[in-house]
Amino acid sequence: MMNSKNLLLALALACGLVFVLRLSAPTPAVNFPVAGPICTLKQRVGLTNIEVVYSRPRVEHYTIFGGLAPHGTGWCTGVSQTAKITFSTPVKLEGNDFPADAYALFVMPDENEWTVIINREADQCGAVRYNGTDGPAWFKVAPKHC
Question: Is residue 91 classed as helix, strand or coil in its secondary structure?
Fold first, then answer.
């Protein structure tokens, strides 16, 4: 039969062992929400697969167009990365030919019309970069409010 002193010692050792083992166990990673969750839109149009990947901005409490994205200024249509549009086959948009490939997608919002910019340098970040050789297409569209 174990006396109370030995029982307390065994209990203390057991608690200490559990504590040490718990400290050495890996802690699970916490995945905090990002400022602009990555979103992917896929659509098949005729024989072409179109994919748009962008980081969705959180717009509550913010004025985006005319605010964070000033009128007449290039905007990368995302938060943490430039939006990318990919065509699986050659396409023609507003008279511009695009081979099957991935492209950077920008807009220049204005009050009554937007300029859409599709740039051949797909992997870029931030403001519109154009050095005259990467062949972007610029065309105007009228914004529609839903």
Answer: strand
